[in-house]
From TrEMBL:
Subcellular location: Cytoplasm, Cytosol
GO biological process: glutathione metabolic process
UniProt KW Transcription keyword: no
Protein's name according to its UniProt entry: Glutathione S-transferase
Annotated EC: 2.5.1.18
Keywords: Coiled coil, Cytoplasm, Transferase
One Pfam family linked to the record: GST_C_2
Any one GO CC term of the record: cytosol
Record CDD domains: GST_C_Tau (cd03185), GST_N_Tau (cd03058)
Residue ranges constituting the GST C-terminal domain according to the UniProt record: 90-212
Organism: Zingiber officinale
EC category: transferase
Homology family: Belongs to the GST superfamily.
Length: 229
């Protein structure tokens, strides 16, 4: 068994929403950790050794243990360290938080990716799917400030990438899905989430992030076009 006091490191990449999600959780729990920036174009031996399956960030190193996948990392730190709970202790509310986390990760993120990269009919369909999914999230927020209630929790951290990176995606790829008139609760949640100090103080610079994702999108589209020839 690894003691909670064992050394903690986080292998990450500055623009990754999944990495930031883990940092939010670590800081909410008051966990001291060392952050190690990875060059994903030239992955370190440590990253390849500790995440040999996906070879991606984030990777949490706790003593001699390596934990991958940002949502699993959040659950690991919540169960390993005391402090502010990320997941509700009530079984029903805990299951609900996991449901919305999975919904955002599997549905909203995939639709955003297609809206970001695809063109034509596939892009239009993805944008419409994303609007419908955001409507579901808006309905879930009825009567609540956060998905976790009065304070942010696991579901908020899981959905939280949309509060910042969805706007970046809209700007870079030229589409709009967040309409405050149609999604009033979700739009308000985005503003409230970004005002939470641990979130606000741990976001990448917006213009730098826009530039990075514009470059990344251009590179991916160029590679896809070359492969199609």
């Amino acid at each position: 068994m690894v003691a909670a006091a064992a050394e903690v490191k986080l292998l990450g990449m500055w623009a990754s929403p999944s990495v930031r999600r883990v940092e939010w959780g670590l800081q909410m729990k008051g966990i001291e950790y060392e952050y190690v920036e990875e060059d994903l174009a030239n992955k370190s031996a440590a990253l390849l050794r500790h995440n040999p399956v996906h070879k991606q960030v984030p990777v949490l190193l706790h003593g001699d243990r390596a934990v991958t996948d940002s949502l699993l990392i959040l659950e690991y730190i919540d169960e390993t360290w005391l402090g502010m709970p990320l997941l509700p202790r009530d079984p029903y509310r805990r299951a609900s938080a996991r449901f919305w986390a999975k919904f955002a990760e599997e549905n909203c993120r995939e639709a955003t990716k297609k809206a970001f990269f695809e063109r034509g009919e596939e892009r239009s369909e993805a944008i419409e799917q994303l609007r419908e999914q955001l409507q579901r999230l808006d309905e879930e927020l009825e009567g609540k400030k956060f998905f976790g209630g009065v304070e942010i929790g696991f579901a908020d951290l899981a959905v939280g990438w949309m509060a910042f990176w969805l706007g970046v995606s809209e700007e870079v790829a030229g589409f709009t899905v967040v309409d405050a008139k149609k999604l009033p609760r979700f739009a308000e949640w985005m503003d409230d989430f970004l005002r939470v100090p641990v979130i606000r103080d741990n976001l990448p610079p917006r213009e730098k992030t826009v530039e990075f994702f514009r470059y990344y999108r251009d590179q991916q589209l160029a590679a896809a076009a070359a492969a199609a020839k």
